């Protein structure tokens, strides 16, 4: 079978709830930054050290657990935030209260307090933090390959691993036109003479052999 997967279709499919609101109710999406259009709280919050933590209170139980870890138990019984619909309606007030609380501690402090909690949360990492993350290191995500021009280079390895077959980095980033001849001759059945003619006419570019 022919498998077609393009970037446009992928991004359209990722709109999920925004697409449903538009297609079924004619509601145009608004810009909420990191926030969710129909779930509150569900966004990134800046902490005292200037970094960010993203959290999700997907339902009443998770919202209550978040408030408990933040020592804001009074928000759970606040009539403005009784359910998600109320929290969406009163988004500005609730996010303001949560933002003030998050700003009182560093991300490290909040991450320690959230350990084992019932709601999703994560620090928004810098690249250095991401690549030094213990799980990223454990999964051996960074691979070193030899490049014929620049020497050894580091690349990110494949995200998917299989139990019965190998998925690995097969080579360094190619030079411009490095595989042009291979694709045209081996996959598209052009002769080497034709490829040379194309190159001489400026139709294609091949890397030096």
TrEMBL record:
* Record field: transmembrane: none
Please give the InterPro entries that the UniProt record associates with this protein: CoA-transferase_III_domain, CoA-Trfase_fam_III, CoA-Trfase_III_dom3_sf, CoA-Trfase_III_dom_1_sf
Q: Would you identify the family this protein belongs to, as annotated?
A: Belongs to the CoA-transferase III family.
What Pfam families would the database entry show? CoA_transf_3
Q: What is this protein called?
A: Succinate--hydroxymethylglutarate CoA-transferase-like
What's the superkingdom here? Eukaryota
Q: What does UniProt give as the signal peptide span?
A: none
Which of UniProt's keywords are assigned here?
Transferase
User: Which SUPFAM superfamilies does the protein's record reference?
Assistant: CoA-transferase family III (CaiB/BaiF) (SSF89796)
What's a single GO MF annotation on this record? Answer: succinate-hydroxymethylglutarate CoA-transferase activity
Gene Ontology cellular component list? mitochondrion
């Amino acid at each position: 079978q022919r498998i077609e997967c393009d970037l446009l279709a992928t991004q359209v499919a990722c709109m999920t709830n925004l697409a449903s609101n538009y297609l079924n109710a004619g509601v145009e999406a608004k810009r909420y930054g990191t926030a969710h259009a129909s779930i509150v709280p569900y966004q990134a919050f800046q902490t005292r050290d200037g970094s960010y933590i993203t959290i999700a209170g997907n339902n009443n139980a998770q919202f209550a657990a978040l408030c408990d870890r933040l020592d804001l138990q009074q928000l759970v019984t606040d009539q403005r935030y009784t359910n998600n619909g109320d929290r969406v309606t009163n988004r500005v007030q609730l996010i303001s209260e949560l933002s003030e609380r998050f700003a009182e501690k560093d991300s490290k402090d909040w991450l320690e307090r959230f350990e084992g909690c019932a709601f999703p949360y994560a620090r928004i990492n810098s690249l250095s933090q991401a690549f030094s993350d213990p799980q990223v290191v454990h999964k051996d995500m960074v691979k070193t390959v030899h490049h014929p021009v620049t020497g050894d280079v580091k690349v990110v390895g494949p995200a998917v691993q299989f139990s019965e077959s190998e998925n690995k980095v097969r080579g360094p980033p190619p030079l411009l036109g490095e595989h042009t001849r291979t694709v045209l001759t081996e996959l598209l059945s052009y002769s080497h003479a034709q490829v040379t003619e194309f190159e001489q006419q400026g139709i294609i570019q091949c890397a030096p052999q």
